[in-house]
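Same chain as my last thread, 110 residues:
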Amino acid sequence: MAVVEMTPTAQDRVKALLDRDGKLATHGLRLKVIGGGCSGLQYQLGFDDQVGDDDNEIQHGEVKLIVDDKSAVYLAGTVLDYVDTLQESGFKINNPNAKSTCGCGQSFGA
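reply #2:
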């Protein structure tokens, strides 16, 4: 089992964003946990073309997901999804390790 799973919807969205900029072959989506936010830890998403020695590179179809070892401890079993409804649009992170979350859903406590 991968550290982080991606739904097909999330894979399609990442692929579309990277395709738009011509970076699908060279970049991946980095999911990172950093200190901060109202619950103590927060997620950081961004595109990256560097994979270091302490990174886990997880291939999901045509999309590469990059998670560093420190973040992997907090993200084991997480599912990354993408939603686009009338109420909300964006990536959703379903993290079974989050003991508490803030109202905005961007920070958590473990």
